[in-house]
Design a protein that fits this description.
Pfam family, one: Trypsin
Radius of gyration: 17 Å
Largest sheet: 6 strands, antiparallel, barrel
Subcellular location: Secreted
Order of helices and strands: EHEEEEEEEEEHEEEEH
GO molecular function: metal ion binding; serine-type endopeptidase activity
CATH class: Mainly Beta
Keywords: Calcium, Disulfide bond, Hydrolase, Metal-binding, Protease, Secreted, Serine protease
Strand content: 25-35%
Cofactor: Ca(2+)
Oligomer: single chain
Number of helices: 3
Distance between the termini: 31 Å
CATH architecture: Beta Barrel
Number of domains: 1
Shape: globular
Number of strands: 14
CATH superfamily: Trypsin-like serine proteases
Length: 303
């Protein structure tokens, strides 16, 4: 689908949407309803039973100007694929956050759930490595505030319930998700991962790529010569130099390691500058996961 891109562009291969600027209101609730309590208990039980954020094959911590990732060192990374007949093609990334649920971007979803499949345990998309698990989508729930004609309005997040739970092993694991409201400091080192284009308008790589990106705090990212008012409180920025996410990285994780060694997904890849994937002072913008923690918990608990 061809559209005019204004100010920024989404990163998915299959769909691009126009952008207009507007306000996003954050959830300011301070109490916890029975609904929220049940959701919190549900997610706690998932994490306790299966663990999260631990890679059997630790990533090489040294994808524009990035590098090939160590195979299966990001075991929560998934390939979201869209089908046409019997043929499926990679369209977005995503993150396994429980055995039955994948988190991706709202703009990655433009068709019915039957059009998509999720491939877990993938490294080289051009080779059947024997580690892959393929699941269809039983249900896809996109945030009610997502507006396909306004990426910069925020709420660019969807959850996919798998037709069957993933079998967790060394190649397929869940990522941790941060507590509600968690904010990373300026220059905190994180990693973008995906099968996105290696450079603007370039080819899609077969093997999973990674690049280290420093978090850019909200004050810097919203400066007039950076993104300005396009970036909202419910977003997080990272990069802005020669490394960035690119088309096909959409929906994938911003992986950030906590001091105890666990990996948390702090962002869902959303958009970059319309001038290219690695534009100076235009870092990649992610949906900030901690701004949607209550929504994530509730959605998984009640679906």
């Amino acid at each position: 689908m061809q559209v005019v891109i204004v100010n920024c562009k989404v990163l998915s291969v299959a769909v691009q949407v126009g952008v207009k600027d507007s306000m996003v209101l954050l959830d300011k609730r301070r109490g916890f309803s029975l609904w929220e309590t049940k959701a919190a208990l549900f997610l706690t039980s998932v994490v306790s039973a299966h663990g999260c954020g631990k890679a059997a094959y630790p990533p090489s911590t040294k994808v524009v100007n990035g590098e090939e990732a160590r195979p299966h060192s990001w075991p929560w990374q998934i390939s979201l694929q869209v089908g046409s007949g019997n043929y499926f093609s990679h369209t977005c990334g995503g993150t396994l956050i429980s055995p039955s649920w994948v988190m991706t971007a709202g703009h990655c979803i433009s068709r019915s759930s039957s059009s998509y499949r999720v491939v877990l345990g993938e490294h080289d998309r051009d080779v059947n490595e024997g580690t892959e698990q393929v699941r269809t989508a039983a249900k896809i729930i996109t945030h009610s505030g997502w507006n396909p004609s306004c990426v910069a309005c925020g709420n660019d997040i969807s959850l996919i319930k798998l037709s069957q739970p993933a079998v967790l092993n060394d190649n397929v694991k869940t990522a941790c998700i941060p507590d509600s409201g968690a904010i990373l400091p300026h220059n905190y080192p994180c990693y973008v991962t995906g099968w996105g284009r290696l450079y603007t308008n370039g080819p899609l790589p077969g093997k999973l790529q990674q690049a280290q990106l420093p978090v850019i705090d909200h004050q810097h990212c919203t400066a007039g010569d950076w993104w300005g008012s396009t970036v909202k409180d419910s977003m997080v920025c990272a990069g802005g130099a020669e490394k960035a996410g690119c088309n096909g990285d959409s929906g994938g994780p911003l992986n950030c390691q906590r001091s105890d060694g666990l990996w948390f997904v702090h962002g869902v890849t959303s958009f970059v500058s319309s001038y290219g994937c690695n534009t100076y002072k235009k870092p990649t913008v992610w949906t900030r996961v901690s701004a949607f923690r209550n929504w994530i918990d509730n959605t998984m608990a009640y679906n």
